[in-house]
Amino acid sequence: MRIVSLLPSATEIVCVLGLGDQLVGVTHECDFPEFVRGLPKVTRTLIPKDTSSGEIDRLVREQRKTERALYILDLPALERLRPDLIVTQALCGVCAVADEEVRAAACTLPGTPRVINLEPESLAQVLDAIREVGHAANRSDVADEVVADLSHRVEAVVGRTAGIHHHPRVALLEWLDPPFSCGHWSPQLVSMAGGIEGFGRDGQPSRRLAWDEVCAFAPDVVMIACCGFTVERTFADMPLLNAVPGWNEMPAVRSGRVYVVDGSQYFSRPGPRLVDSLEILAHGLHPEAHPLPAGVPAPARVDRATVQAR
């Protein structure tokens, strides 16, 4: 089977099912496992490199008003790859090529490849997506094993959280300029990890916030997981926090419990490593109860000196 993935999380699902040798094309953002960086790319973005967070937000808002795609499908490249299976999504109009465009393109390809549309809004649905891809690729048995292992890890976190009596108020932010709440599966992760999410709602998209709203919530912990950003790229936005009225008075800032995590690799990528995201979050909230598994990165602490120095 020749498989093309049109989003990074789908690429990870394909690979965790042992189908990496059948993956023939990926997006320009697919970067894990490492070998997929060398595969043919079938998409490109209209967002210029080194664009500021505020400008990215403006481009996204314009895209939503005009329905102009920010990601472009390279149809000639797709035709050359002759896929049997295309894995895409319709959850976010910003994060990938539109589902309608993919299905229209598939109709023009030789053999009319099957198109699977993944649209998970919760952790359980992410696990279901793994099963769906496994079924389509004749790897249902492997998918069941993968899901069982991931579920065991989730249950371990939930079990440890059950013994925790203090649940801190948590602001899990998906963007900083302007601030956005987390969405979809993320509020559930906060609850499982032993926190109280202040702004996101289970299964609902992220939403724009006002900094006054964030400060009024008085979070005990601020976890910054900018969508599509690495830890290093997110740290570049730290000076923005200096201009936020009331920032330095928030309990999380006063106690040194502001963290940056990799939103690109983990929190905004609904694939197998969403369970890693849960473990990262749990460790950040309750390190004494939730040890960090080997190979899973710890949240990067942000103190006042770091913000002011950058």
Question: How would you sum up this structure, described in words?
Answer:
By secondary structure, the protein is an alpha/beta fold. The chain folds into two domains: 145 residues, Nitrogenase molybdenum iron protein domain (Rossmann fold); 144 residues, Nitrogenase molybdenum iron protein domain (Rossmann fold, 3-Layer(aba) Sandwich), CATH 3.40.50. Strands 7, 8, 9, 10, 11 and 12 form a six-stranded mixed sheet that branches. The protein has a four-stranded parallel sheet with strand order 2-1-5-6, with helices on both faces. The longest helix is centred in the middle third of the chain and has 22 residues. The radius of gyration is 20 Å and the shape is globular. The termini are far apart. The model has no long low-confidence stretch (mean pLDDT 90).
CATH homologous superfamily grouping of the largest domain? Nitrogenase molybdenum iron protein domain
- The CATH C-level name of the largest domain is Alpha Beta
Structural class by helix and strand composition: alpha/beta
> Per CATH, what is the topology of the largest domain?
Rossmann fold
The rounded Rg comes to 20 Å
| Anisotropy-based shape | globular
Number of strands: 12
How many DSSP helices? Answer: 13
- In N-to-C order, the SSE pattern is EHEEHEHEHEHHEEHEHEHHEHHEH
- Low-pLDDT residue spans: none
Percent of residues in β-strands = 5-15%
Helix content: 25-40%
Corresponding CATH architecture of the largest domain: 3-Layer(aba) Sandwich
Mean pLDDT: 90
Number of domains: 2
